């Protein structure tokens, strides 16, 4: 893929990935076929900041996990009231990383 497109993608969507993942994302995009560009542009990434806000407001009900697409974990948090509050507290620190991990897996799946 054209390096100018790759740099534009990194500048636009860099906040959706962990900082240590950016180099791998850049290399994967550079090695990808030009036909994958339309697919990459159509991916809707989950904003890590939004996932944190959702977790702070509705984490006890599992809404943050439903937001990320983790239906099973969302149901688990809903049934246990956020793991009796413990799971909710832990997710406040981990949910942004989970969102960035989901974004990376979406991108790699599109490039495969």
From TrEMBL:
It is found in: Membrane. Its main location: membrane. It comes from the Bacteria. The keyword Signal applies. Keywords: Glycoprotein, Membrane, Signal, Transmembrane, Transmembrane helix. InterPro entries: TM2, TM2D1-3-like. The chain crosses the membrane at residues 75-99. Coiled coil: none annotated. GO terms for cellular component: membrane. Residues 46-93 form the TM2 domain. It is a multi-pass membrane protein. This is NINE protein. It comes from Labilibaculum euxinus.
